[in-house]
Design a protein that fits this description.
This is DUF1000-domain-containing protein. Belongs to the PITHD1 family. This protein has about 210 residues and is of the alpha+beta class. Helices cover about 15% and strands about 30% of the residues. It is built from 2 helices and 8 strands.
Amino acid sequence: MSHHHHHDDHCGHEAHAHDHDEPGGHKDNLYVRIDRPNVVALNADKEGPEVIKPWDKRLDEEVFIESDADDQLILRVPFTGSVKLRAVLLKTGPADQTPSKVLLFANENNLDFSDAADKKPTQEFAVAQGREVGEYSVMPAKFSNLTSITLFFPASQGADTTRIYYVGFLGSWSERKENPVITVYEAQANLADHEKVRGTEGNFSAPQS
């Protein structure tokens, strides 16, 4: 496994060279964009942030959260900005403690178990058993302006409890405010609007109104 050295964080200058061959690697891993102190787990033996781990800890099995009263579990994950999600990463189990599926809800900040049972998820996936991290590619259009995501695990694959070791997210992130790029675009857009209004005045009297 010696060729995996470059995953270490200290060689950030190398990251751009490996964009394409590190599907779950640093470039689009949203770990640093998760508002970890405000991650909440419902019906769990811990708070929730424990399973939001850095990429290099994704296979760690010492720290996990487990469902409490039954095998249902909800994890609410807020982001520090606006996220365009590409995939959800999960390490669960072992064996029949693996959830049967995961239901994803975009921007549902206060979802609880009664809501989750009634509401249609934004997307859902069957979860396979295994010791590796599973990557679940979402429909980007449905998760393109994400400020939080809620993961609902409705049942285990037979055990009394569901266990989650690692939850990660791949995608791109943008700040919600004070982003100079947005300011530039706005200035250009306004300019174009003014020109259009002047140039078309009297020609087309806005038929769509």
